[in-house]
Amino acid sequence: MLALLATPASALPQPQSTAAEPRPASIPAAPMGWNSWNSFANLIDAKIATEQAKALVDSGLKAAGYEYVVIDEGWWKGQRDREGNIVVDPQQWPALRPGQKAGDMSNLADYIHGLGLKAGIYTDAGKNGCGFAGPDIGPKYPGTGSEGYYDRDFLQFAKWGFDYVKVDWCGGADEKLAGAVQYAEVARAIRKAELETGHHLYLSICEWGSQKPWTWAPGVGGSTADIWRTGGDIVEPVVEAATDEKHLKRIVTLNNVLKAFDAGIHPEAQHTGYYNDLDMMVIGMRGMTEPWERVHMGLWTLSGAPLMIGADLTKLNRSSLAMLTSPDILAVHNDLLGVQAIKVAGVKPALEVWAKPLATSGKRAVVLLNRTESAATMSVKWSQLGLVASAARVRDLFAARDLGPYDSAFSTPVPAGDLVMLVVSGQDRAPTLYSAVQAGNELAGGAVSEPCGSCPGGQSVTIGGKKSLAFKGVHSATPAFIRVIYRNTSKATVVARLAVNGSQTTAVAFPPTGEERRTLTLVLNMRDQEELY
Ligand code: GLA
Q1: Which of 149, 92, 93 is nearest to 126 (CA)?
Q2: Which residue of 84, 136, 483, 531 sits 20 to 30 Å from the alpha carbon of 335, by its own alpha carbon?
Q3: Taking 90 as the threshold, does the pLDDT of residue 532 lie above it?
Q4: How many CA atoms lie within 13 A of 193 on its CB side?
Q5: Atom 8 of ligand 1 has which residue's CA nearest to it?
Q6: What are the catalytic residues?
């Protein structure tokens, strides 16, 4: 039972002003952890994976919320036995304690679980994975994809005990497959494996944005939580152990970081547990400076993007670790609304103000981003944030300092190639309320308006199956944050499709609420998407 009660909409505000207002639904934040690729490429083995897992704990990263240890390409060289089961190198994956058998990936999953962490693994949606297209180090190895073996492989990953699977696209691209079709099959195979083992596998889609996954990846194959890469690799792996000329020359730049951020802005697709993936992070890697790391951390957390660290965790310096574990910054990442930021002002080219609403009423996370090579004074006005012009408290997150109340705007110098990240706590502008049963709305497939004591207008509409509801006459000149008030009295998350003006469509996950009304926040583009992004 999914009942839509009403949708208040406004330019940026996240309205939640009265005590009777429903609470936000509980949706999962994007995953946080470590991935082997950026610093170890296909040299990954049990020694590296266990050392990094241990460092995740010892460094305090686990305590800050980083929980996944993901082994990327290179863990498997494409061998299968006669039945088609994956066979791995027993030397690369030995027994890790007495009684274990070498060549069994559950050894690693057990080790990771023993540290209180979660384990992630990697495959490709096509036949030949990226190890065939061009491994970073060593000879090509064919057959590292799961195509033709989806049911078998995802069941195997779940049986080994893995909790997360990244599914790459080298084979899919080579074979010119359709991402929307292939990843729906992957999601179905994962669900089958979950039903058989009772073990959840989180789906990480790695299609690099080539087929606009933000238009089909939310809820693909019925998935109630997933992430999708929005661009190519942020950098080629910077492998400190590799001393050939090609690797020695590799270095990370601010431009790598900004390019990945720009490719990842698809706010209308991100909500209710579905996230744009801007790629594994490069904080702590060769070439990064403290201001660039600030830009990186600020933009990834403001976006609510997955935070998968790509550095060698045994070598992170104090400043990188402090940024990665800052409670103020991580609170923005983990905010319950799970929405992405939108640009609220581009003062001049390359001087940009980005913002998003947070779950607490009147609260906004704001980034003042200076992409230029000179320092600049930058400002944000409360009107740009959907707040009324009255005293709002401002906190500088990287400085971890309260700056006091400001009446209608805040200005600050921002150094070249750097950012200032704020939380502004003020008062929401009044939202516009659209009732599910207002005149002009279209009910189809047997959907009818029903009495509902606690709903605005006293009526609600149940959707799902063939029953659908179209709100008419919703207007906004800019992208609008929409809050949907709903109730889902079933025990499971319901995934429904949402279309705006016949063009933008996305899946929305409605978690169960019992008898209570809860809210979900979405970003809708009312105008032609191309005009805005
Ligand atoms: C692709 C992905 C990377 C990494 C490599 C492994 O390039 O985008 O994140 O998984 O493959 O080869």
Answers
A1: 149
A2: 531
A3: no
A4: 28
A5: 233
A6: 168, 233
